[in-house]
Structure formats: C-alpha cells, structure tokens
Write a structure and sequence with these properties.
By secondary structure, this protein is α/β, with parallel strands linked by helices. The chain has a domain of 114 residues: Oxidized Rhodanese, domain 1 (3-Layer(aba) Sandwich), CATH 3.40.250. The protein contains 4 helices and 9 strands, in the order βαβββββαβαβαβ. It has a 5-stranded parallel beta sheet with strand order 1-8-7-2-6, with helices on both faces. Strands 3-4 form a two-stranded antiparallel sheet. The longest helix has 15 residues. The protein is globular. The N and C termini lie far apart (47 Å). It holds the Pfam family Rhodanese. Keywords: Plasmid. It comes from Azospirillum ramasamyi.
Length: 166
C-alpha cells in the first residue's frame, strides 16, 4: 500500500502503508525496547463517539485495552478532524513532551487502522522529530501476550457550541 500525499479520510480499518514519511515504523519487539528505555510516550488514538449533550463527553460503550502507560487521545487520527480536535491534539502533544519536539512519540491504534498513521503523520508535520508508528497496535501487542491496562480517554476538547445550544 503506497503512502498517500494527504491523510486517509475514510475506510480507516483497511490495509495500511509499510511506512510513514518522516517517522519510523516499529514492530512489537522495537516497541518493547523503546518503552523499556523510556524513549517514547505511547499514544493510543482509537476513535470514540461524543455525546451531543452540553459538555459533550465521550461515549464509551465498551472497555478498551491499551499498552501500559499510554495516553488515549481519541479521534486525533481522523483524516479531517474539526479545529477543536486539531488544537487539542497540538496542545496535548505540547503538554506531554513539555515542549520538546525531539521527545519520542509512539502512535498506535488497532491493526490495519489508518487512525494511528494519520496521527503519526500529523505529529511529523507539527515538527516532532522522533515519531514512531506501530501499525499492528494493541492487537499485535495482545497477540504477543504482553500486558495491557484498561484505557481511559483524556477529557475531550471543548465542544463547539452551536447558536441553538443553551
């Protein structure tokens, strides 16, 4: 699968490219090494729906598993996220790295999932120099029999208020 020029906009659960321009594609043993050396911040990007209620919380209908120590940033891997999500992604990366663009970031989702590829590409375009993409994601991690923990998404970005909202 060739790398697209832009972001994948639909059919996120489908075969992904072999690599990521400006980043490093890693397999399970490489992820284990990066994590054991404290060289990356693992970022889980599984998609979640949001409520239309005031405050717009995430709607998590089932529990999800993640690599221990991960930060879950839902929807940052969408092909065309809204401005609030983009701004939230940028601010979360800034916070997680303490402004150090050379701090290693590891993006993952599920296997054959473009959300992690899109998020990794977005981080590269934001100027992060050590972006790692784990294409088999939590599926590959669990297939290897490695430990997981329950995933809890970070609070969502402020919901855009429509004129009709109270």
């Amino acid at each position: 699968m060739p790398q697209p020029d832009g972001f994948r906009l639909s059919d996120y659960r489908s075969p992904t490219p072999d690599g990521i321009a400006g980043g490093e594609t890693v397999d399970t043993p490489a992820v284990q090494t990066l994590l054991s050396q404290g060289r990356v911040i693992p970022i889980f990007v599984q998609r979640l729906e949001r409520s239309t209620l005031p405050g717009a919380p995430w709607l998590q209908s089932k529990p999800y598993r993640q690599i221990p120590g991960s930060v879950w940033l839902p929807n940052v891997g969408m092909g065309a996220p809204d401005e609030a999500t983009l701004s939230w992604f940028e601010s979360q990366l800034e916070r997680l790295t303490a402004g150090d663009r050379t701090r290693g970031l590891l993006f993952y989702c599920l296997s054959d999932c473009w959300l992690s590829w899109n998020a990794a590409k977005r981080a590269v375009l934001l100027g992060y120099a050590r972006v790692h993409w784990y294409p088999t994601g939590i599926d590959g991690w669990m297939e290897a029999g490695l430990p997981t923990e329950e995933a809890h998404p970070l609070p969502p970005p402020d919901a855009a208020r429509s004129p009709s909202a109270p």
